[in-house]
Design goal:
Alpha/beta knot; eight-stranded parallel β-sheet; six-stranded mixed β-sheet; 31% helix; 29% strand; elongated; binds S-adenosylmethionine
Length: 245
């Protein structure tokens, strides 16, 4: 059953009680019209969820009693990391929101030959706020990590920490997600999915990725916009792992 979650900073969990921030309390009071005695679900962004009875509520904060504690509510077993070439305007905002909703654990913006814009700390902070809202709205308990902008070469090196390395690419060598033998290439361990920027990857970048064990993957016969590709790719892999059932 879906229910909207509230966020508690882990340091504000004290024994059998927790304290909600002014911002969360505002949402609790003014938007959802909760009151003393109501039961709500609160998550700490690190995988712990609390069923909480509101004991005291004022405009600047609320205090609740923890009734039950559960680990990893709303979380897929698979740890999927999505690396995506930085996009212009608000398109990366959209990507962060949707990737969080569907269960991505880490989002890695990167620069490459065809994507040179570096997202500064303000943008990363904005994406973190978007991810926080999407985590609560979608009923997750882990706040996805938003990495600082890396280079494509750094992303390729990250692959060594992942049991499954896939790169979305339009080309004859690409195979479908469906055709990949799940036992060997998509497992419930960590997977790194890489999606290019609007201009795609250069030949050298693709060669480098393949040399580092990345498998080129097709997302179908239509050329998707980069942010659409990121969500379609993630969805196909999550679905293959049975995480969308
Ligand atoms: N002109 C670029 C090319 O031919 O590669 C188009 C790039 S596309 C707009 C942006 C990124 O989305 C690509 O680098 C790729 O990672 C991904 N992408 C989009 N459609 C795809 C498809 N049908 N199959 C595989 N990857 C796709």
């Amino acid at each position: 059953m879906h229910r909207e979650h509230f966020y508690v900073n882990p340091r504000d969990v004290r024994g059998s009680e927790l304290i909600l921030s002014e911002e969360e309390t505002h949402h609790l009071l003014r938007v959802l019209r909760k009151k003393k005695g109501d039961i709500v679900w609160v998550v700490d962004g690190e995988g712990t969820g609390y069923e909480v009875k509101i004991l005291h509520i004022e405009t600047n904060g609320a205090r609740g009693k923890i009734l039950t504690t559960r680990r990893r509510i709303g979380e897929p077993v698979a740890e999927i990391h999505l690396a995506q070439g930085v996009l212009k305007g608000e398109r990366f905002d959209w990507l962060v929101e949707k990737a969080t909703e569907i269960g991505i654990r880490k989002i890695i913006p990167f620069t490459s030959e065809n994507a040179v814009t570096v997202a500064g700390p303000q943008k990363v902070a904005r994406w973190k706020r978007i991810a926080m809202a999407a985590m609560k709205q979608s009923g997750r308990s882990v706040l996805p990590e938003i990495a600082s902008t890396m280079t494509f070469h750094q992303v390729v090196s990250l692959g060594s920490n992942c049991s499954c390395r896939l790169i979305a690419h339009i080309g004859p060598e690409s195979v479908s997600v469906k055709s990949i033998e799940s036992k060997h290439h998509i497992s419930t361990q960590r997977a790194l999915l890489v999606v290019g920027p609007e201009g795609g990857f250069s030949k050298e970048e693709m060669t480098r990725a393949v040399e580092h064990g990345f498998r080129p993957v097709t997302l179908g016969p239509r050329r998707l916009r980069a942010e659409t590709a990121g969500i379609v790719f993630s969805t196909l892999v999550l679905s293959k792992l049975g995480e969308l059932e």
